[in-house]
Amino acid sequence: MSHPTGAAPSALEGIRILEIASERGVLAGKLLADMGADVVTIEPPRGSAMRSYAPFVDDRPDPEKSLYWWHYNTSKRGVTLDLESPRGRELFLRLVASADAVLECEDPGQMARLGLDYPDLAEVKSDVIVVSLTPFGRDTAKPDAQVTDLTVLAAGGPVWSCGYDDHSIPPVRGGGNQGFQTGAHYAVLSLLTALLHRGISGEGQHIDVSLHAAANATTEMASYCWLVAQDEVQRQTGRHAMAMITMPTQSQCADGRYVTTGIPPRWPHEFSALHAWLVRLGLVDQLPEAIFLEQAAEKEFIDFSLLGQDDEVNAIMGAGRDALLLIARNVSAHDFFIGAQECGLSAGAVYAPEEVIEDPHFKERGFPVRVEHPEIGRTITYPGAPYRFNGSPWRISRRAPTLGEHNDEVLGELGVTSDERAKLRADGIV
């Protein structure tokens, strides 16, 4: 794969992955493709259902202008293939022979019905890695259970932990397909581990990822609190769900915006910086407890393991929280965010998505990425990498493929002639 002149190669350059397009695992393919893998996403000839998902460019429905499709399919090549037809399956198996891995998210039993399950693919390429991402795992008592991202999150447990201190308000679902995306991350980590294992052993394998289990294993402390101590965690506004109720961390600022005050000071130098911030703002006289900030600043170490047991430690912790809340009420959300950073404290403003893209911190990190769309004569700003590596950079190498855009290219690599490709199109195979 080509990359900018002088740039280091991406981490997964030289790895080819076949992806059977599905919203359940489409993020996994994107993460792999943006890290340099040659991900070939395979759609039915009529196109993936994801092409119909809103929003669309200029709010005009068009299967080639779905922002959902665009976002989740960057850096991939796209082909169409009718896997219900014998000829389509034959071509798929030929693709498998040239691939390192297959990522599929079909319902349990579907790949076996098509004759494309792991044993079938392993006959074609003995060291192939197959990752199956299904609602409850392949060997399940619920093979026909219908799921959505919401039901994955609700049944898996994360929804129980998300919401407000007021428990008369129902739980809140995390947005952005978090259920599917959690499973996709497990799929990526498993696939990368399998690639390392194959490099040592020469063996392929079949990886079975359950969306339900992935969600349940990602409930932070909720599942193990219940399983180990029979404690139910409680939803709490803007902070970790815990069995015990903790102090609030979200506050409305002077400009009406909200901030998360984050983790209070822990070290003497942080208490010193917080006290100095109060002084600069002329607020120190409004907080009698500021004396505890000064006491904390003079200590060599504060043992917060004694929290709840030692009166002085309790007072220091309370003063830190009260100081942050007082400052938040007297400054704008942006000024609070900047001031907390200057003190070395973890805090953040509650931003709308468009504000995140425009934030100077995110811009400096390179989070907004401009991607050329020559088919519409425009350049579109995308959200960038969820991580940053110095030695093996992440990059969007191309926009998402149009329907069947790489049919000739990919099939040509298999030795399928132009006349054969024309017949495949005429027969509705591609």
Descriptive keywords:
six-stranded parallel β-sheet, 17 helices, 2 domains, single chain, 430 residues, 38% helix, alpha/beta, 11 strands, Rossmann fold, three-stranded antiparallel β-sheet
Shape descriptor? elongated
Strand order of the largest sheet: 3-2-1-4-5-6
CATH T-level topology of the largest domain: Rossmann fold
Could you give a short account of the major beta sheet?
6 strands, parallel
One letter per element, helices H and strands E, the order comes to EHEHEHEHHEHHEHHEEHHHHEHHEEHH
Structural class based on helices, strands and sheet pairing: alpha/beta
Kindly give the count of domains: 2
Radius of gyration: 26 Å
Uncertain ranges: none
Assigned CATH class of the largest domain? Alpha Beta
Q: Just name the CATH architecture of the largest domain.
A: 3-Layer(aba) Sandwich
Q: Taking all residues together, what is the mean pLDDT?
A: 93
At the fourth level of CATH, the homologous superfamily of the largest domain is Crotonobetainyl-coa:carnitine coa-transferase, domain 1
Count up the helices: 17
N-C termini distance: 24 Å
Q: Roughly how much helix do the residues carry, as a percent range?
A: 25-40%
Number of strands: 11
Question: Could you tell me the strand content as a percent range?
Answer: 5-15%
Topology:
Layout: E1 16-20, H1 26-34, E2 38-43, H2 67-72, E3 77-80, H3 86-97, E4 101-104, H4 110-114, H5 118-124, E5 129-134, H6 149-156, H7 178-201, E6 205-210, H8 211-216, H9 222-229, E7 250-252, E8 258-260, H10 268-280, H11 290-297, H12 311-330, H13 333-342, E9 348-349, H14 353-358, H15 360-365, E10 368-373, E11 378-383, H16 407-413, H17 418-426
Parallel strand pairs: 1-2, 1-4, 2-3, 4-5, 5-6
Antiparallel strand pairs: 7-8, 8-9, 10-11
Helix pairs in contact: 1-7, 10-11, 10-12, 11-12
